[in-house]
Amino acid sequence: MKIYNTMSRRIEDFVPIHEGKVGMYCCGPTVYNFAHIGNLRTFIFEDILRRTLEVAGYEVRHVMNITDVGHLTGDGDDGEDKISKRSKETGKTVWDIAAFYTDAFLKDEKALNIEPPVVVCRATDHIADMIAMIEELEKNGHTYIADGNVYFSIDSIDDYGKLARLNLDELMSGARIDVDSAKKNPKDFVLWFTNSKFKDQAMVWPSPWGVGYPGWHIECSAMSCKYLGKHFDIHCGGIDAIPVHHTNEIAQSEAASGEKPWVKYWCHGEFLLNDTGKMSKSSGEFLTLSVLISKGYDPLDYRYFCLTGHYRSQLKYSEEAMDHARAARQSLFQKVAEMKASASPSSEISGKAEEYLKEFDDAMMNDLRAPQALGRLWTMMKDQSVSDADKLAVLIKMDRILGLGLDKIEAAGESKVGGPEEWALVEKRAEAKKNRDFAIADSIRAELLERGFVVKDTPKGPVLEKSV
Ligand code: AMP
Ligand code: ZN
User: Fold this and answer.
1) Is 41 in the pocket of ligand 1 (CB under 6 A)?
2) For the CA of 236, the nearest atom of ligand 1
């Protein structure tokens, strides 16, 4: 397996630290609002990476945090805590906001067939680990206290900014003059806030430096080291994390443990764009997965759409492009359903089909070239020399990485809208109608509608349709 490492700016052979095992940390969502589909693109990329590693035979310990404190609206310790800000705007408590949007995020992940990380850890559950790491940094002489806050001194290490290849002299001369005046170096960053401009912060904890709350970067260092050790294989995120967040994570993690390098491979996903540029929560159309669903798309159409672009290239969202992705995904599902009606996946894949699978795997193992891999899938689908049984067997193997749920597609003619619970309600309604209990029959119809189904009476009996 080969993967691009942002640290070296090269595609490298992937060699894990411990044979057969991979430790992978992914920066999770900041839960002050719904994730937009740009954020979700990054989480889909990470899921594809994890699945590809698994197909390559590795056991992947995938850790993702939930940022529920400390992420300010500005990357340079400026602005307000995003969750506190939202709490003031809505009148809800910070805890309610974090819980609500964490739940919404996990539902989005499920709808997108993203495999749940092995560990999902909340920042607010790990304050003690962060304090312990800051104490370590303090002991090693990397911190100072000014104006009540604890800062990391970037001049205490000799390789600050190596991931982003920052030119510090240039940065210093161009540094904004309105930066926190307590900082000795404008690129120093806060590890722990006590006395700061954010006095009305709702989430605070006691610490050796006074009651306060952690900076954003320390949470990822503390949690990743806790769950993956002082040295692990892969750290992921979106490219916007490179210049500040990941740069600061590296500085403090290596300074705390005294061991380098902290992380072996840095993997970053490019942006999803809209008409105005990078999709973000503050600018342009705020597109969530629910908005896509209300536009008539299936969450898996979006997953397919993401697979049509390489993770290191920008991807432009448009309804036209989504329509193409939906048409392709539906056509694939339809073909699989038709093949399943007359064939079962072969237990042994033969010559030509095996070649297609190998080409697919090779494309994915070579820095996750998903568009090329999809190309091999479609060429195989059109190849009449490959039997349906072989095609089905290969598709199921390809889907371990694609994650489109091809194994769950029912054979054509057998598919039934609605699950067992809905059909139990349909039967109850039929019974009520037979007994001329129309009020009950109507209430069951309403309940089905709430679940997203319309019940229709046909000469062949009742059927369910998805409500729009
Ligand atoms: P946040 O919830 O803001 O912490 O972001 C979650 C993840 O989404 C981070 O890894 C970001 O780097 C990533 N991200 C933010 N905007 C975009 C975008 N437009 N396209 C792709 N990824 C993004
Ligand atoms: Zn992080």
Assistant:
1) yes
2) 10
CB 307 within 8 A of CB 52: no
pTM: 0.87
Q: From 44, 240, 314, give the residue whose CB has the most ligand 1 atoms within 8 Å, as the site to mutate.
A: 240
State the DSSP string of 240-303.
GGIIIIIHHHHHHHHHHH--S-SEEEEEEEPPEEETTEE--SSSS----HHHHHHTT--HHHHH
Residues 80-135: pLDDT tens digits?
A: 788 888 888 888 888 999 999 999 999 999 999 999 999 999 999 999 999 999 99
Nearest atom, ligand 1, residue 31 CA: 2
Among all bound ligands, the one having the nearest atom to the CA of 286 is 1
Per-residue pLDDT, 177? 47
> Is the distance from the beta carbon of residue 143 to the nearest atom of ligand 1 less than 6 Å?
no
Mean pLDDT for the chain?
Answer: 92
| Contact 27 CB / ligand 1 (< 6 Å) | yes
* Residue 175 neighbours by CB distance under 10 Å: 14
Question: Average pLDDT, stretch 55-68?
Answer: 97
Distance of CA 443 to the CA centre of its chain: 39
CB 285 within 8 A of CB 316: no
- Cβ–ligand 1 contact at 241 (below 6 Å): yes
Residue among 42, 44, 72 to mutate when testing ligand 1 (max atoms within 8 A of CB): 42
- Index of the ligand 1 atom closest to the CA of residue 28: 6
Task: Write the CB contacts of 333 (distance below 8 Å, at least 6 apart in sequence).
Answer: 404, 406, 409
Alpha-carbon span 248 to 169, nearest angstrom: 17
The 10s digit of each residue's pLDDT in 4-29 is: 999 999 999 999 999 999 999 999 99
pLDDT band at 257 (very low <50, low <70, confident <90, very high): very high
Contact 449, 467 (CB under 8 A): yes
> Which residue's alpha carbon is nearest to atom 15 within ligand 1?
39
